[in-house]
Amino acid sequence: MRFTSKKWRWFGVGLAIIVAGFFVVRTWVVPAVILSQLQAHYKGKVVFQNWWFNWQSSGITGLKLSETPASDSPVWFSADRIATNVSISRLIRGQAMPTSIQVDRPEVTFRLDVKGQP
User: Fold this and answer.
1) Which residues touch 45 (CB under 8 Å, ≥6 apart)?
2) By C-alpha distance, which of 39, 52, 49, 47 is closest to 84?
3) Is 75 exposed, middle or buried (0-12, 13-18, 19+ CB in 10 A)?
4) Model confidence pLDDT, tens digit, residues 82-111
5) Of 3, 15, 59, 114, which has the fewest Cβ atoms less than 10 A away?
6) pTM value?
7) What is the pLDDT of residue 62?
8) How far apart are CA 87 and CA 31, in angstroms?
9) Can you tell me the distance from the alpha carbon of 111 to that of 60, in angstroms, rounded to the nearest whole number?
10) Taking a C-beta distance cutoff of 8 angstroms, is the pair 73, 67 a contact?
């Protein structure tokens, strides 16, 4: 069976839609889901730079947690990289909960008010 030019055109259009959909999900959808889940558990402002999910691990880079939800709130915690051992291979085996979490270069800022209270 030979493909006609019309079938090749539809194949190309379908492939382009799949590739574009992958990049939309990778660039906007997954980061929005990660951010919404982090903000659901932490009531302050949350910012992160990137994320990954592969056969060995998953995690985020450039995490910053602010004291309040305000945009000018000072950052009290930051970490260059937070990795877990949740991976594609573990999910295939039915293991969705991480057994280890690795935080690289954490920075914690502890502030005291005038009365000496945190």
Assistant:
1) 65, 66, 68, 69, 70, 71, 73
2) 52
3) middle
4) 999 999 989 899 998 999 999 999 999 988
5) 114
6) 0.78
7) 96
8) 17
9) 26
10) yes
